[in-house]
Write a structure and sequence with these properties.
The chain is mostly helical. The chain has a single domain, classed as RNA polymerase sigma factor, region 2, helix turn helix motif (Rna Polymerase Sigma Factor, Chain: A, Orthogonal Bundle), CATH 1.10.1740.10. Helix content is about 70%, strand content about 0%. The protein has 10 helices and no strands. About 10% of the residues have low confidence.
Length: about 220
Amino acid sequence: MQSAPIAANLSRDAETALLARILAGDSTAFAELMRRYNRRLYRVARSVLRDDTEAEDALQDAYLQAYRALPGFRSESSLGTWLTRIVVNAALAHRRKNARLAEVIELSGEPIMDDLPSDQPQRAALRAQTRRLVEAKIDGLPDAFRTVFVLRALEELSVEETSDTLGIPEATVRSRYFRARSMLREALASEIDMAFEETFAFDGARCDRIVQNVLRRLHSPT
């Protein structure tokens, strides 16, 4: 059975207890942590990389880095903020790697058309089409605006949390978010508000796959 993402916000006491279980070697606790933060962190990685597969790879790498660094976590910021910073850095590393490869490899190919089944209801087809349009427009935002928008609009982080996560002033968060919304509204008009809920859908299968892959890599000999 597929598992749904768990809402992220942990109290400080619950966060401390979960970390203690992880540091004691409880792998089920680390799986719980991943399921709790998977959706937010996947969306952040995807906002940097604009590719589903690359985002999954970067997120898995980030979890491995976080697992190894957890003994040094001092709770100076929230666990979610700390994890998001690691994911941003992992995604940027993937992007730099891809940029280097692109310099020596000629990339070509036609876009894949993701056609909907003909027997799907018309309303579902319209919603799916609108969601893909929103995702494409978010992907088209400039780098400086895209991650701010994902954290503020999709993950509903506060200005302060986004500022702390990305290490930029709160005023910059506000201005980038305002400008990102303006650009999207110019492109999408009224459709944008109807499509936010399902933007970059994080289904149970992807959540399970990321958890299983990370746990497998953690227990594989290095």
